[in-house]
Amino acid sequence: MTWLFPIMLLVPGLLFALLGALLAAPDEAPRWRVAAARLLERLARRLRREHPYVPDPFAALRVQTRLGAVAHHVQALEYEPHTYALAERLIASQLAYDQLLAEACGLAGVEVLPRAKGDPQERFREEVELASRGWSW
């Protein structure tokens, strides 16, 4: 009978301690929920299959031919000094060229840095990156 009294005192204390461990403070998630989320995330990572992105070769070919045409157009404008509204045409053509370069970089996996429109250094960097990956136009 003397052992019944300490058990009656310890059992509720252990239950409250267990309940306190399972419940979280107001600013954090319960530990059991965090452990369950980690377990489910590991399971999902094992089940999830990563499919590598393979770009469409015809889309790359289309962008390459368009890049070549626009580059030729820009060169023709630069060598013709008596064109009406030459500056506006050059700016528009170079911006179109930059957009095509950004599209080509997306297809080739080259990172496009956020720069001002028409930045010649960024244009040169993108051209070099694309050429190093085998692109030509």
Mean pLDDT: 86
- The secondary-structure element order is HHHHH
Q: How many strand segments?
A: 0
Give helix % range. 55-70%
The shape, in one word, is rod-shaped
How far apart, in Å, are the first and last alpha carbons? 95 Å
**Number of helical segments?**
5
Strand content: under 5%
Rounded to the nearest angstrom, the radius of gyration is: 32 Å
Characterize the largest beta sheet: strand count, sense, and whether it forms a barrel: none
Low-confidence stretches: none
Structural class: mainly alpha
Question: Summarize this, please?
Answer:
With 137 residues, the protein is mainly alpha-helical. It has helices at 4-22, 31-47, 57-79, 86-108, 120-132. Helix 3 (57-79) runs antiparallel to helix 4 and helix 4 (86-108) packs parallel to helix 5.
Structure description:
Helices cover 69% and strands 0% of the residues. The relative contact order is 0.08. The protein is mainly α. The protein is rod-shaped and about 110 Å long. α3 runs antiparallel to α4 and α4 packs parallel to α5 (120-132).
Secondary-structure topology with pairs:
Elements: H1 4-22, H2 31-47, H3 57-79, H4 86-108, H5 120-132
Helix pairs in contact: 3-4, 4-5
Please supply descriptive tags for the structure shown above:
mainly alpha
